[in-house]
Design goal:
By secondary structure, the protein is α/β, with parallel strands linked by helices. About 45% of the residues lie in helices and about 20% in strands. α1 links the parallel β1 and β2.
């Protein structure tokens, strides 16, 4: 069974990777779907995010990366994926993802599997790491070496 792990991944973190790796253990194939959210200001453009995600998952043989165009449920149909996998860190994440899961199921019949974030990186978000990096602190424990280099280049260090 194929699953989709969607996100903006700006940048991809070890928390994202934890969810992707766990999904790859459950499903025969995982498509990491890198999307655009018109309400977000991105540090990395879509191609850069796809490259960073591709590098981060390169050791996972049943994981591939693709860009989302349009609605997630339409993307899932094109990918012949029956499940969306999302990580949740807090109750507010759960509340939002539950609404999205119910809407996605009503629109398409596609199910959503919510995985609780792992202990080690469960409180870390991409936006937090961008802010920390802009203020000169070290984010290397929370991202891959390639992501760390890319973030440092963007913030001019």
């Amino acid at each position: 069974m194929r699953a989709v792990c969607p996100g903006s991944f700006d940048p991809i973190t070890r928390g994202h990777l934890d969810i992707i790796c766990r999904a790859a253990e459950v499903f025969s194939e995982v498509v990491v779907a890198v999307g655009r959210n018109t309400t977000k200001n991105y540090m990395f453009d879509l191609d850069e995010r796809i490259d960073l995600v591709t590098d981060a998952v390169s050791e996972l043989p049943n994981v591939r990366v693709a860009a989302i165009e349009g609605l997630l449920v339409d993307f899932c149909r094109r990918q012949e994926a029956r499940v969306i996998v999302k990580g949740v860190r807090f109750g507010s994440d759960f509340d939002y993802e539950l609404q999205m899961a119910q809407l996605n199921r009503a629109l398409s019949g596609i199910e959503t599997m919510l995985l609780p974030a792992g202990r080690e990186y469960g409180t870390v978000s991409s936006s937090m790491l961008r802010e920390v990096a802009h203020n000169g602190a070290d984010i290397s424990p929370f991202v891959t070496p390639a992501v760390n280099r890319a973030v440092l280049a963007k913030v001019g260090r």
